[in-house]
Automatic annotation (TrEMBL):
Residues 3-329 form the NADH:flavin oxidoreductase/NADH oxidase N-terminal domain. InterPro entries: Aldolase_TIM, OxRdtase_FMN_N, Oye-like. One of its GO terms (cellular component) is cytosol. Its cofactor is FMN. PANTHER family: NADH OXIDOREDUCTASE-RELATED (PTHR22893), NADPH DEHYDROGENASE 2-RELATED (PTHR22893:SF91). GO terms for molecular function: FMN binding; oxidoreductase activity, acting on the CH-CH group of donors, NAD or NADP as acceptor. Keywords: Oxidoreductase. Belongs to the NADH:flavin oxidoreductase/NADH oxidase family. It holds the Pfam family Oxidored_FMN. This is Alkene reductase.
Length: 352
């Protein structure tokens, strides 16, 4: 437990502790993607953790799939994020913005431009998505052309630069949870016949190009990536080559000297150990559903340098204090996760 509260050097930054707030979609931005003023309070309340990874943020119009998610590619977006990063820094915290292109996890009703979603291949995920008019089937996406893939890499690069201009300490590339980069990795979503489909090397190409482009734009020490090896949500299936694909991908990413790798662990302990051995930079580990009693175990074992938590930090703005003192935790309210206002967002009680 004591190791949780030691400082840690992450690139050029010194984090106050080894606890990380995981990125969590909250769907409370303005319709144009500008973070709402209430987000300033939400993130600053939680600045006691060593690092905040902000919610998934679209790098372009086509990157949006959900209602009311923030962007980071217009002047208004940058101005909104500046308020958030300043508030977090004023409390001694650090914040990376997660760049999330949802790809086929999209419904036209959720976006201002109402365009069809884009993906590696024209394959629907076979699930429904929440929209303003209720749950609807996700439509078949449009397959990206090779030129559009290159343009999408450029969109990620531009968004990363805007994030740094907005005061973010860096960006985390969302390569997990069935979104665009993950879709390229999985044969169930990627049946291309060009250099972005087929072999392990080809399916990993887009992720590696995005990471290299961003690192070249803002510096490798400000660039990170999140992966979820073995995840099978929303029609994603990485197939029998899945473990080999991640061994290749992580080894190639490691050559870029990125700030950190953030793994959402899906249960394959053997693969996790193999990826740890291949990765020589800091590792953030997220174990969904991990109990309070096990907080700090992965630091103590040496498997990870930092541990990330989602719902517990969502419901406990003073998470670090509660861990230190053994105080009871607030329970998160799933009914208020997405959309709305203060309730379930900035009104969770703190210790007196």
């Amino acid at each position: 437990m004591d190791k949780l509260f030691t400082s840690f050097k992450l690139g050029q930054y010194t984090l106050n502790n080894r606890l990380v707030m995981a990125p969590m979609t909250r769907s409370r931005a303005e319709y144009d993607g500008t973070p709402a003023d209430l987000a300033v309070e939400y993130y600053s309340q939680r600045a006691g953790v060593g690092l905040i990874v902000a919610e998934g943020t679209q790098p372009s119009d086509d990157g949006q799939g959900y209602l009311m998610t923030p962007g980071i590619y217009t002047e208004a977006h940058v101005a909104g994020w500046k308020k958030i990063t300043s508030a977090v820094h004023n409390k001694g915290g650090h914040l990376f913005i997660q760049l999330m292109h949802t790809g086929r996890m999209n419904h036209p009703d959720n976006t201002p431009h109402h365009r069809q979603g884009v993906a590696p291949s024209a394959i629907a995920p076979g699930v429904q998505m929440f929209t303003a008019s209720g749950m609807q089937d996700i439509p078949v996406p449009r397959e990206l052309t090779t030129e559009e893939i290159h343009n999408t890499v450029a969109d990620f690069r531009y968004a990363a630069r805007r994030a740094v201009e907005a005061g973010a300490d860096g960006v985390e590339i969302h390569g997990a949870n069935a979104y665009l980069i993950h879709q390229f990795l999985a044969p169930s979503a990627n049946q291309r016949c060009d250099e972005y489909g087929g072999s392990i090397e080809n399916r990993a190409r887009f992720a590696l190009e995005v990471a290299a482009a961003i690192a070249g734009e803002i510096g490798a020490d400000k660039t990170a990536i999140r992966l979820s090896p073995g995840s099978q949500i929303w029609g994603i299936n990485e197939g029998e080559e899945g473990p080999a694909l991640y061994r290749y991908l992580v080894a190639e990413l490691n050559k870029l000297g990125l700030s950190y790798l953030h793994i959402m662990h899906m249960g394959n302990e053997v693969l996790l150990g193999e990826l740890r051995a291949l990765w020589t930079q800091p590792l953030i580990l997220n174990r969904p559903g991990k109990s309070r009693e096990n907080i700090g175990d992965d630091l103590q074992s040496g498997l990870a340098e930092l541990e990330s938590y989602g719902q517990m930090i969502l419901a406990n703005p003073d998470f670090t204090c509660r861990i230190k003192t053994g105080a009871e935790m607030n329970s998160a309210d799933p009914a208020t996760y997405y959309g709305g206002g203060v309730e379930g967002y900035t009104d969770y009680p703190v210790m007196q």
